[in-house]
Write a structure and sequence with these properties.
Elements lengths: L2 E2 L7 E2 L20 H7 L2 E12 L7 E12 L9 E4 L12 E9 L2 E10 L5 H10 L5 H9 L7 H12 L3 H8 L4 H9 L8 H11 L5 H9 L9 H11 L1 H13 L5 H16 L7 H9 L8 H10 L6 H5 L10 H13 L6 H29 L6 H4 L13
Antiparallel strand pairs: 1-2, 1-7, 3-4, 3-6, 4-5, 6-7
Helix pairs in contact: 3-5, 6-7, 7-9, 8-9, 9-10, 9-11, 10-11, 11-12, 13-15, 15-16
Length: 405
């Protein structure tokens, strides 16, 4: 739990959001980690609150002394001090005492504590964060290896923060570590009833990278168990299964994608797993096989719009006829599906796919305003970003639009 202290009289508990995108294919949306938060702080201390003085007339309702037990991030302001007084009133529960990890700025030679984490006295949070800062500038494999050791820590503050480090990392940095892990450790976590279901996607993908063919049966057993088909982790387990047994696993995944009677969340997880192989591991599942599998989902009216959008973004114009054929189907007359079909047709090369050009012309005659609105939204999507500092200095922008090998 992180507590931000603001100008109000109350203490507000917040979840710190980061970017709108996330890197780990199977971890869910990431958020700011303790290491990232620490990078913004002038100094960080850990200690015991004492002598709270309540002052209803004060902005933060009083003061509290902090007996410093560890300095996580050094600053001249704190040099040699064993105690500091913060302008926050922290009530002390004698029946359940807490220590505090406190992030501070220093403004005009005054301490400004802006974030605090109450933790149990036996917590190793100070040791954890100090170690995290020590590896912050190391290579990705070294950093992730450090956080891997804390994924099963009984302190939820530590294990959750370590998990977020994986959620925020790029796959290219995740893969080298994942391939070196001990599969028996991962199996133990997957079979532990206390493992949060939100971790199954990450752990399943880890096992797929470091495990052996015999471990595929473990993932298959979990996948076949209706009680374990968690929407937050099934995609990573599917990907792990395919990595361990490419032919058998892909046939299994393809069967899920093709069966419109299967639960939507299961098919959506299958779609996410298929995206993983398209975007990152065409060495395991060739791109054309991914496209063929996604084409099997087009007749499914509850997920067709997502599939069409993927095919459009991947510029798979060879599937144009299949996509356009959906427009007149009563099962696919939902506005969101029709809009996805039009978006696809508008970006298909007219010289190579005259059927798309004819379709657009017909839609202009039917509803010119609708076509115009969709075109304008597409234009916003493809507009180049504002020049970055690199662009201003003449550095070439990176090209991430190609399918990785």
């Amino acid at each position: 739990m992180r507590v931000h202290w603001g100008s109000s009289l109350s203490v507000v508990v917040v979840v710190i959001a980061t970017s709108t995108s996330w890197s780990c294919p199977f971890c869910g949306p990431g958020r700011q980690t303790l290491t990232q938060e620490a990078a913004q702080a002038a100094l960080i201390i850990y200690g015991t609150p004492t002598n709270p003085v309540f002052d209803p007339a004060a902005t933060f309702q009083g003061t509290t002394d902090i007996e410093i037990e560890a300095v996580i991030k050094e600053h001249p302001f704190i040099a040699g001090k064993k105690r500091v007084t913060i302008n926050r009133y922290l009530a002390i529960d004698k029946a359940s005492p807490k220590k505090y990890l406190i992030f501070c700025d220093v403004f005009k030679d005054k301490l400004d504590p802006y974030l605090g984490m109450p933790v149990d006295p036996e917590s190793r949070i100070a040791e954890y964060l100090k170690g995290a800062l020590a590896v912050r500038e190391k290579d990705a494999t070294t950093r992730l290896a450090y956080f891997f050791k804390y994924l099963d820590n009984p302190d939820i503050n530590l294990s959750d923060d370590a998990f977020q480090e994986f959620a925020n990392v790029d796959y290219k940095d995740f893969r080298p570590l994942a391939e070196k892990l001990d599969p028996d450790v991962i199996v133990k976590w997957l079979q532990d009833l206390n493992t949060p279901v939100s971790r199954f996607g990450l752990y399943g993908s880890m096992l797929g990278h470091c495990g052996h063919k015999r471990h595929a049966a473990i993932l298959r057993e979990m996948l076949d168990d209706p009680a374990k088909r968690f929407s937050t982790g099934i995609d990573g387990m599917l990907a792990g299964y395919v990595l361990l047994q490419p032919k058998e696993g892909w046939d299994y995944l393809r069967g899920i994608l093709a069966d419109g009677q299967r639960d939507f969340l299961l098919r959506y997880a299958g779609l996410r797993a298929a995206r993983f192989f398209w975007e990152y591991r065409s060495d395991v599942v060739p791109g054309e096989e991914v496209i063929k599998a996604l084409a099997l989902m087009l007749p499914q009216d509850d997920i067709a719009d997502l599939v069409i959008e993927d095919l459009r973004k991947w510029k798979r114009w060879e599937i144009t006829e299949n996509v356009l054929a959906l427009f007149d189907k009563k099962t696919h007359d939902a506005p969101i599906i029709r809009r996805a079909i039009l978006r696809f047709a508008l970006q298909a090369p007219a010289d190579r796919y005259p059927r798309a050009a004819a379709f657009i012309a017909a839609q202009r005659r039917r509803d010119a305003e609708w076509v115009k609105d969709v075109e304008e939204l597409l234009q916003l999507e493809v507009m180049p970003p504002k020049p970055s500092n690199d662009a201003k200095t003449g550095a070439a922008p990176s090209d991430d639009g190609k399918q990785p090998n």
